[in-house]
Q: What sequence folds into this?
């Protein structure tokens, strides 16, 4: 384990050390890793789930997965990359479960922006210039109100910078489907921001 | 006045430099003369730019860490991942060999004709065959989708092993399907096909447990 971690060339040594200690069961070390990475994980969970409570629960799930799996981190990528990829998978798994549940209960993704704006992100959390704050909040709210499939692809592509082939692999869908979802998301966002 | 506007999909693909030559030329020609579409493109690029500039980090609620900490002890004391044995390539390979051998022993000689004609399901699917497939298809599709979406967290060797083992099971299903298509009255073949589907469902469940525990 320690040999694998030591192979990482660009990982801060203190973080490698924290990872080693966390793998050995040191919760204080894991807490430090949590504080270093939870902001990025929570932002991802929030944007992909569209709801703050769900994002908090997803963040818990992600870090419990990290705790269980940290020993398998091979150091082939930066720890932050490994964590981010794991977070995406946890969130996508949850999205699929939720979609199946909604499908089972007869609700509809329907191609419209849903009006579930009751639990929205983050006015105080965006650290951008004052003029941009309102725009950013509007955009965050519009993203949160996208249908799940379109939201997933938009967040991964336009916010997180994934390529279509990566998103297709992560979501188990065709690249063409991802592109169609992205175009749809952008159109819906433009319509929402025009209101 | 130009009323033949570009649709949002084309504009979106144009903004991402993903249009092919002919479509690109057509779009550029249109954009050079159409203020409406040019304005739409500017707005669309604005959304993309704004999305890329959103803050990457947001502070989670303070209670999240406490909730995580309360789950840590249980997380590691829980029984180890049930599908860990798939990490062992030789064991997975042995499972594949057993499946192949089982198929060879169980599929009757008469099945060879159907296999020779075309492996898999014929145009006219017998009622029994269709019934067996229909029974398992939704579950398999769902598990497949889940597994596909989780491939990124698996090691390349594990993915390779899973794919190989799935191919073996699919081959067994195809042979049993062909045999049943040739002899649709055979209850034994119907049972065998159902057993292979059961095996596939069980395998996919183990595989998804494996990836979701990573």
A:
């Amino acid at each position: 384990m320690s040999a694998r971690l030591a192979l990482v060339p660009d990982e801060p040594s203190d973080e490698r050390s924290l990872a080693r200690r966390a793998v050995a069961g040191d919760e204080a070390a894991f807490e430090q890793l949590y504080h270093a990475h939870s902001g990025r994980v929570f932002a991802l969970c929030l944007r992909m789930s569209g709801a703050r409570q769900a994002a908090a629960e997803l963040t818990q799930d992600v870090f419990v997965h990290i705790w269980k799996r940290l020993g398998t981190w091979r150091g082939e990528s930066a720890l932050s990359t490994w964590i981010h990829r794991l977070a995406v998978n946890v969130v996508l798994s949850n999205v699929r479960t939720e979609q199946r549940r909604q499908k089972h209960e007869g609700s509809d993704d329907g191609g419209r922006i849903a009006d579930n704006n009751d639990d929205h992100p983050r006015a105080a959390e965006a650290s951008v210039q004052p003029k941009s704050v309102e725009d950013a909040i509007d955009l965050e709210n519009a993203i949160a109100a996208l249908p799940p499939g379109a939201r997933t692809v938009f967040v991964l592509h336009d916010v997180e910078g994934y390529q279509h082939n990566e998103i297709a692999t992560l979501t188990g869908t065709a690249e063409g489907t991802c592109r169609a979802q992205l175009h749809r998301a952008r159109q819906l966002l433009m319509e929402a921001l025009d209101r | 006045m130009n009323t033949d506007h570009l649709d949002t999909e084309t504009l979106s693909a144009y903004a991402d430099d993903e249009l092919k030559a002919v479509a690109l030329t057509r779009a550029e020609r249109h954009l050079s003369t159409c203020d409406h579409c040019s304005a739409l493109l500017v707005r669309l690029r604005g959304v993309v730019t704004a999305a890329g500039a959103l803050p990457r980090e947001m502070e989670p609620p303070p209670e999240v860490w406490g909730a995580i900490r309360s789950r840590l002890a249980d997380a590691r004391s829980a029984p180890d991942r049930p599908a860990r044995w798939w990490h062992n390539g030789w064991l997975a390979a042995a499972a594949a060999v057993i499946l192949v051998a089982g198929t060879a022993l169980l599929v009757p000689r008469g099945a060879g004709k159907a296999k020779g004609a075309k492996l898999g399901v014929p145009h006219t699917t017998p009622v029994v065959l269709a019934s067996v497939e229909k029974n398992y298809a939704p579950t398999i599709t769902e598990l497949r989708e889940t597994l596909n979406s989780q491939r990124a967290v698996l090691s390349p060797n594990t993915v390779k092993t899973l794919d190989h083992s799935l191919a073996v099971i699919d081959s067994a299903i195809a042979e049993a399907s062909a045999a049943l298509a040739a002899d649709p009255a055979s209850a034994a073949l119907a049972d065998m096909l159902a057993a292979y589907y059961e095996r596939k469902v069980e395998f996919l469940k183990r595989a998804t447990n494996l990836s979701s525990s990573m």
